[in-house]
Amino acid sequence: IQLTQSPSSLSASVGDSVTITCRASQGIRSFLAWYQHKPGKAPKFLIYAASTLQSTAPSRFSGSGSGTDFALTISNLQPEDFATYYCQQLKSYPLTFGGGTKVEIK
Amino acid sequence: QVQLVESGGGVVQPGRSLSLSCTVSGFSFSSYGMHWVRQAPGKGLEWVAGMAFDGGNENYGDSVKGRFTISRDNSKNTLYLQMRSLRSDDTAMYYCAKEGNAYSSSWLESWGQGTLVIVSS
């Protein structure tokens, strides 16, 4: 199952709201997770089952979608949110990640 | 707290083998599926391999199938990745990761800091 993320990168300012999309090549119901990755750090898990926020993630992160089309929205962007974000499908093996979306400071 | 520490990375010649380890603490290792994920320089995350909590089910990415073997020793709280016939495109940071749900396949909840593998002559 291929995952296509868009855009591949975006520039935004602190306080902005941004949305990243992830499209699956076939239906995966809600078997999708989102991760944040910063250079030199371990990836951090944010959202599972497409829209359930993990307990320690800030509430400005939200996920939506099912089937083939998904989105990650970050509201009120904070300095610590500038990173690369990846979706991952958990519907079937081999597990796959999207190509990533780099969120940069404008 | 949950800790995952990878080791075993280094510089290896093309065609040779290398074995990675991931030693964990802070949770019941024998209850969770575990995975290896890698990131090549300048590239995105790539899922490499995964194994069920009891070692009964293992799966691989297409690019490593037949060359890499994942295994675990629940008595030692350690996950392994045996890599053979290494190629230059296997150069990457290798992360181990723990699933979020005990006894069932799920998202990758916790990650180690990674160990760097460089395949070069």
Report the end-to-end length of chain A measured between terminal Cα atoms.
Answer: 33 Å
Share of residues in helices of chain A:
under 10%
Oligomer: heterodimer
Output the helix-strand order of chain B: EEEEEEEEEEE
Name the poorly predicted regions of chain B. Answer: none
Average of the residue pLDDT scores of chain A: 97
What is the first-to-last residue Cα distance of chain B?
A: 40 Å
Q: What structural class results from the helix and strand content of chain B? A: mainly beta
> Which geometry of chain B do the CA atoms define?
globular
DSSP, total strands of chain A: 11
List keywords for this structure.
heterodimer; A: 106 residues; mainly beta; seven-stranded mixed β-sheet; four-stranded antiparallel β-sheet; 0% helix; globular; B: 121 residues
Q: How would you characterize this protein structure?
A:
The complex is a heterodimer of chains A (106) and B (121). With 106 residues, chain A is mainly beta. Chain A contains no helices and eleven strands. Chain A has strands at residues 3-6, 9-12, 18-24, 32-37, 44-48, 52-53, 61-66, 69-74, 84-89, 96-97, 101-105. In chain A, the strands form two sheets. In chain A, strands 2, 4, 5, 6, 9, 10 and 11 form a seven-stranded mixed β-sheet that branches. In chain A, a hairpin with a 3-residue loop joins β5 and β6. The model of chain A has no long low-confidence stretch (mean pLDDT 97). The termini of chain B are far apart. Chain A binds chain B through residues 33, 35, 37, 41-45, 48, 54, 84, 86, 88, 90, 93-100, and chain B through 35, 37, 39, 44-47, 50, 59-62, 95, 97, 100, 105-114.
